[in-house]
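[step 3/7] fold_predict: job queued, chain A
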Amino acid sequence: MSDYKVPVRDMQFVREEVLDFPALWQCLPGCEEMNAELVTAIYAAVAKLCEEEIAPLWRSGDEEGCTWSPEGVRTPAGFKEAYARYMEGGWPALTGPVEYGGQGLPPSLESVLNEFVGSANWGWSMYPFLAKGGRLTITAHASDELKKIYLPKTVSGEWTATMCLTEAHAGTDLGLLRTRADPQADGSYSINGTKIFISSGEHDMAENIVHIVLARLPDAPPGTKGISLFAVPKRLPDAAGNAGAANGVSCGSLEHKMGIHGNATAVINFDNARGFLLGEPNRGLNAMFTFMNIARIGTAVQGVAHSERALQGAVRYARDRLQMRSLSGPKNPAGAADPIIVHPDVRRMLLTIKAFAEGTRLLIQYLAREVDIAYLAEDVTERQGGEDMLALLTPIAKAFCTELGFEAASLGIQVLGGHGYIREWGMEQNLRDARIAMIYEGTNGIQAIDLLGRKVLASQGAVLVPHLQRMGAFLPRRRGRSGVAAVRATAGRAGGGMGTDHPRDRRPHPEGSGRDGCRRVRLSDVRWLCHACVPVGAGGAGSQRGSRRGYCGSRFLPGQAANRDVLLPENFAAYPHPGGHHGDGCRVTDDDERASFFARMIFPAPRSPAAELHDDREAQVVGRGSRAGAGISQLPDSPGRASTVPSAAIAAGAVDRRQSSSAVLRCCSPG
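[step 4/7] structure written:
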């Protein structure tokens, strides 16, 4: 058994009590069977798998690593067996299409599976997670004939997949790639070239690997406009659809890496390998964004996973480690010293890590809700709205969550002091594993370019307007609540990094400011979410759910008294222990409710009534036209988008969530 405990209760709180996924599913076709019992059973089953099968391989997999030989790559001991248990449980097929053997559950459940399994063992988790990206790419762009061949095996998990983009001379600049695809008489293509940094590129956990490869046709134009996308299997399917003869695909070597040693990062050679076109010729980069966007959200989840790992390890150590006496008097008078959890600086670090873990989890689940809307909503406008919101928030989430995950891992080491630097505690491994996340799927600077260049400016702000409208509708209704001014101020400053006509930044800044603007937007999003997802009332989101009020109050009570002692030894029973699904240990009584961890770490101190009044007046301006909120004054209105309805109105029955699919956005918009 591993020390890692799956935070089931925290996930239930975010999805059911804050974002209200049950209400969302009532508005979406195909989700009629989703209920609390089914979701609880899924959580319990994946928690058991993670804690008993996958997490125990985290350290051993790092120490052993993957082994290359001419015959193939061997994964660390236990990895293959754990994957067999994973397949037996039907987890690869959880959200797969029913017609190809999947269970057809809402796609947002993948985000839950990704966090739990990724936190347990990120190196192991990459093998099945990349397979899902390949499956969705084939679903979106392959011919019906190819779908019949490849989807049953990728849905079941019998075959995994990879994303083959990078070449040694061309990293992010894919327009420079040289891998060639020559047409063959049978309609296939001969693929020749070498790809590097291919995660899960070669292994012994599945019988076949389908590589999703970018390559050039002989007559392709130069640059990114001349790239096509291909499915290139390691072994060619036979007439029965099983893995048959070897294709011209080989692993040249494995990279020697800083972290995630349990995952095989490979150099893959294609020597006259048969490939099959996905999508249209010379439109491969567009098709590959299906895979890349999925991978970017998955990488954002990696940031949450490392924050959660850091939190559990640091809290566990800080409770047990005795050192010095508390400044306010002994807290462990029977012992030689007090546990370090009583010391202010240690509490500061623990609360910071906790804010990072819970804040980024909320952001990921907010994206997951938009995924359900984009995939399942009946109304075309609503589906497009979900896709637009995902396009805007994906680079934000990828950059924000991975940066905070690395910072949390570093703070986790600091809590342990010298012991954090020692291998046996696992904190240094968590830091090593976390560092790659800021590079994966486009560095975080590239995410800023994607957000500001490809999304905001290229659309003339069209994808940004609906998001600002949601924020603008929220702000006037929260007058007087501490921290709301920070949401407005941060959103307003965000425009300054976009080269817009904000008063403080009337000139475009092509260099440097994009990263800063992206950072500001990320901060405003998390601040807004922490406020907007909580109905008005001192009890927080849980106040309308009786016995859960205390659990919610410990997380979402901006503006209350400082939470200075929630982590002290005498309050251990009230503090949600890592893996807080273990019964009474996760309860917080009403008397123990304090300020939100988000409020302490992300929001500024409460402002004076006069300052709040000033900001509320400005917020009304934002509410009338959200374009002004981010310094963008020339953006067109977004036609055909449903307005938001306060969650209190929904709870009171003012909105019939079952009347039609057009209620989806209204039901699910926070605040």
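[step 5/7] annotate
The longest strand covers residues 265-278.
The radius of gyration is 25 Å.
exit 0
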